[in-house]
Write a structure and sequence with these properties.
Helices cover about 40% and strands about 20% of the residues. With about 525 residues, the protein is α/β, with parallel strands linked by helices.
Length: about 525
């Protein structure tokens, strides 16, 4: 038995049964060990950003880590953007990064790099395995760190630690500590603030607090105590749809966000941090709440958010039978016809969404209306990229589909963002994943046109246009998808889009719709 075998055994003993991979020479002994472990599902990504993004999507839907397998520092570097998104989503992940044999490092071979330095900014925990005898304790520590609290961990595997002889291991499950007890001082302080400012208190929810059962408690508090309920700007995972409490999403545009929160005197955080502007803009604030707004943390990431909401409900004297407000049916709105628009796509997807679907939204500007409409859709899970790094949508949908093979996954994808990790379509085809990708094809970085206006530039010239638009040549998503093995078709009218969506939802397997807007 070698170190690579031990590493696999520790992962499998702790129910880490999926490895998203893009290996190289330094990882061949680990690849051979994986080949001896049929219990491990190995999923190839043609780019490391697909690998780490898929692990993020998998973790969000299972609350468990997958492993990734990356090749030395450059391979890790290719995956950093979606590791950043995963870290911001508090997603558990175990990155296994191969490296040169320890005695080879002083020779400074071409792939030698500072892996620890590359990994640290995008990881909550980093450790280099010291040798074959260190594989089991290091892997167990990586698993523990990925879940206490959930986050990104990176384990560096030198080649000689992988191929070196190791004592036969009989790894068991790593014992995880329970979450900290509810902070009753925070509960009492929050309850007092809510009583003192009826109608002027907001609660933001994320993480476990954004699941349907916890949202019901938050909704009861909201209804009984005249409290407004918000989600963060970028949502890691929220359970939405008819019969569920629907927080208002804090808008991305800074003027809309500050207007929404302008009359909030107390903002209560459950599982997240104070919302702030994405960027600094001349003459505009960085904080979205007023400077005199009191910001309280009821419970932070890593604490029992559901129990904290229960304790707050009890402290406020709200009964578990308290009715809540939730959407029941779509507002009256005629189906769109003729030329395809962003709003028409959002309305069609929301109305046709299957029960228990998973929506991965990376359409940025184009799908903004969908979130509001999703409150009226069939019950589903909704996810976004959380770190602002684009290129997470296709991989996230890929990982979600592997995590939940019995659920339809809908990926709302911007054309510019999708090109960062288009290789993920190949993985969807290879694994026959049940993903419908809808590309909002406006052939521009629309969000950056808006950002130019935000910084005071109302008219752009040829140089700026060439950096912001995706024409000349225009992207052909149907050909791109077919080249990756995914069936695809183009829609230019509402009628054509509806027909394609109906067809894609009626069957299993990957399908891409290029929606021309």
């Amino acid at each position: 038995m070698n170190g690579a075998d031990v590493l696999c055994d520790v992962l499998l003993a702790n129910d880490v049964t999926v490895c998203f991979a893009n290996p190289g020479t330094s990882e061949m002994h680990f690849v051979a060990a994986l080949d001896r472990k049929p219990e491990m599902r190995c999923v190839l990504g043609l780019f490391e950003g697909v690998v780490t993004g898929a692990a993020d999507g998998y973790a969000r839907m299972t609350d468990r880590p997958a492993a990734t397998l990356l090749h030395t520092g450059p391979g890790l570097a290719n995956g950093l953007a979606n590791m950043h998104n995963a870290r911001r989503a508090f997603s558990p992940m175990i990155n296994i990064v191969g490296d040169h044999a320890s005695y080879h490092l002083p020779l400074d071979a071409p792939l030698t790099s500072d892996i620890e330095g590359l990994a640290a900014p995008m990881s909550n925990w980093v450790r280099r395995i010291a040798g074959p005898a260190d594989v089991q304790p290091a892997t167990e520590a990586a698993f523990r760190a990925s879940l206490t609290p959930p986050g990104v961990t990176t384990l560096i595997l030198p080649a000689d630690a992988a191929w070196g002889d190791a004592a036969p291991a009989s790894p068991g499950k790593v014992v995880l500590p329970p979450p900290p007890a509810v902070d009753m001082d925070a509960v009492r302080a929050t309850a007092a603030a809510i009583r003192a400012a009826p109608g002027r208190v907001g609660i933001t929810v994320r993480g476990r607090a954004a699941r349907a059962d916890a949202l019901e408690i938050a909704g009861q508090i909201s209804a009984a105590c005249d409290v407004r309920l918000f989600s963060e700007v970028l949502i890691a995972r929220m359970q939405r749809g008819r019969g569920r409490v629907a927080p208002a999403r804090i808008p991305y545009p800074i003027d809309a966000a500050t207007a929404l929160l302008s009359d909030i005197d107390v903002l209560v955080l459950v599982g997240g941090k104070e919302p702030v502007a994405f960027f600094a803009y001349p003459g505009k604030p960085g904080r979205l709440v007023r400077d005199d707004c009191q910001v309280l943390t009821l419970a932070a990431h890593g604490q029992d958010l559901y129990a904290a909401l229960e304790a707050l409900r009890d402290e406020l004297g709200v009964k578990p039978s308290q009715p809540t407000d939730f959407a029941t049916a779509f507002p009256v709105e005629a189906a769109a016809s003729g030329g395809l628009t962003e709003d028409a796509i959002a309305l069609s997807v929301a109305r046709k969404l299957p029960d228990n679907a998973i929506v991965c939204d990376e359409a940025v500007t184009s799908a903004r209306r969908f979130f509001a409409l999703s409150a009226f859709a069939a019950p589903h899970d909704y996810m976004m990229g959380t770190g602002g790094s684009i290129g997470g949508g296709i991989p996230m949908a890929t990982g979600a589909a592997i995590a939940c093979p019995d659920r339809k996954v809908i990926n709302l994808e911007a054309d510019g963002s999708g090109m960062y990790t288009v290789q993920g379509l190949w993985t969807q085809a290879r694994e026959n994943l049940d993903v419908v990708t809808i590309v909002f094809s406006n052939r521009t970085y629309a969000i950056l046109h808006g950002e130019m206006k935000n910084v005071g530039v109302n008219a752009i010239g040829e140089n700026a246009r060439r950096m912001l638009d995706l024409d000349h040549p225009a992207l052909d998503w149907v050909s791109l998808a077919k080249g990756m093995g995914v069936e695809a078709a183009r829609a230019e009218t509402c009628e054509r889009f509806d027909a394609l969506l109906d067809s894609a939802l009626s069957r299993r397997g990957p399908f891409l719709i290029e929606a021309m807007i």
